[in-house]
C-alpha cells in the first residue's frame, strides 16, 4: 500500500503513558486515495516512537464497505506486509506478480533496491492492516521479490491461537523471508491468555476486532523489551508486531526508506523519470506521481524521538 499523503513530511499525532501495561500510541486518520477515499488509522510512524523493531509503518483500515484502488507506486528499502481480516485485495507488481490476498494468507513484497506495485479490492467489506518492515543496511538493496503464503503456522496456548505470518513467536516460525529478528502474528483470543514474548524484542499490540482487555480500538500499545509474556483477556483478534530494537537511523519519506536526503531525492528522480522501478502491467490507470520534496533537507532519524 502507498502512503498517499500530499505532504508526507508531517507526522502529527498524540500519545499517552500507558503505565505498567505499556505506552499508548494513538493513531491519526489518513485518507487513502481521492475524494471517495477510505480512511486508515496510522499508528506508526508516531511522533514519539517511529519504529517497533524493524516495523516502521502500521496502517489499520475497516471494517467498512469500501473499494481500495491504489495506482502503481514505488518502494525502496523495505518489505510490505499485507494482512486481511475481511475482504480481498489484488496485488500487481513490476516483477509480473498477480496475486489476490484473502484472510489467513500473506502477501509479502520485498522492495530492496526498487519495485513498483498496485492494489485493488473488490467492492464489499474491507478490513485489514498494511505494514512496512525496514530492511537493515546489509540487505536494503537486495533484489526485489514477492512471496504469497496461503497457509501459515499456528501457535496455540490456553486462551489463544496465534497465526505467525512473519518471523517467530513462541518457537513457531513463519516460512516468509525475514531480514532481521522479528515477530508478526494475528492472535485470536478466547478467555484469559498469556501471550509469549521474546524479552529481547520490543512489541506492539493492536486490537483488530472484539473486546480484549487491556486494549481498546484504535491505538497501538507499546511493550518495551524485557517482558517475556503479556496477559490479555476477552474475545477477539489482536495484531502483534515485535522485533529487536532497530539500531540504524533511517529516512522514511513517501514510499521510500533510505539513509539520507540525497538517496531519497535520487529515488524520487528515478521514479519520475520512469527508471529503476519497472512497470506494473494490467492496472487501468496512470502511476502515482511523487510529491514534491520538502524545502529543507530530510534527516535520518532513530527509532524514538
Automatic annotation (TrEMBL):
Residues 40-133 form the Pirin N-terminal domain. Residues 217-274 form the Pirin C-terminal domain. It holds the Pfam family Pirin_C. InterPro entries: Pirin, Pirin_C_dom, Pirin_N_dom, RmlC-like_jellyroll, RmlC_Cupin_sf. Belongs to the pirin family. This is Pirin family protein.
Amino acid at each position: 500500500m502507498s502512503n498517499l499523503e500530499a505532504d508526507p513530511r508531517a507526522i502529527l499525532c498524540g500519545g499517552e503513558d500507558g503505565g505498567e501495561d505499556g505506552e499508548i500510541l494513538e493513531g491519526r486518520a489518513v485518507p487513502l486515495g481521492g475524494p471517495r477515499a477510505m480512511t486508515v488509522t496510522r499508528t506508526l510512524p508516531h511522533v514519539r516512537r517511529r519504529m517497533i523493531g524493524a516495523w516502521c509503518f502500521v496502517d489499520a483500515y475497516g471494517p467498512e464497505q469500501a473499494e481500495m484502488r491504489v495506482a502503481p507506486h514505488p518502494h525502496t528499502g523495505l518489505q510490505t506486509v499485507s494482512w486481511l481480516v475481511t475482504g480481498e485485495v489484488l496485488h500487481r507488481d513490476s516483477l509480473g506478480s498477480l496475486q489476490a490476498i484473502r484472510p489467513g494468507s500473506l502477501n509479502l513484497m520485498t522492495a530492496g533496491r526498487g519495485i513498483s506495485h498496485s492494489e485493488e479490492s473488490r467492492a464489499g467489506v474491507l478490513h485489514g492492516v498494511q505494514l512496512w518492515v525496514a530492511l537493515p543496511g546489509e540487505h536494503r538493496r537486495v533484489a526485489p521479490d514477492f512471496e504469497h503464503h496461503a497457509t501459515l503456522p499456528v501457535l496455540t496456548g490456553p486462551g489463544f491461537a496465534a497465526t505467525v505470518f512473519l518471523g517467530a513467536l513462541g518457537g513457531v516460525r513463519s516460512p516468509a523471508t525475514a531480514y532481521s529478528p522479528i515477530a508478526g502474528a494475528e492472535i485470536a483470543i478466547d478467555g484469559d491468555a498469556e501471550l509469549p514474548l521474546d524479552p529481547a524484542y520490543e512489541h506492539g499490540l493492536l486490537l483488530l476486532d472484539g473486546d480484549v482487555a487491556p486494549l481498546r480500538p484504535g491505538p497501538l500499545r507499546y511493550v518495551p523489551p524485557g517482558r517475556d509474556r503479556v496477559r490479555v483477556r476477552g474475545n477477539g483478534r489482536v495484531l502483534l508486531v515485535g522485533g529487536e530494537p532497530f539500531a540504524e537511523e533511517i529516512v522514511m519519506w513517501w514510499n521510500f526508506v533510505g539513509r539520507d536526503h540525497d538517496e531519497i531525492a535520487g529515488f524520487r528522480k528515478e521514479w519520475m523519470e520512469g527508471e529503476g522501478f519497472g512497470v506494473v502491467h494490467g492496472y487501468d490507470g496512470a502511476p502515482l506521481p511523487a510529491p514534491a520534496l520538502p524545502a529543507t533537507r530530510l534527516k535520518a532519524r532513530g527509532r524514538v524521538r
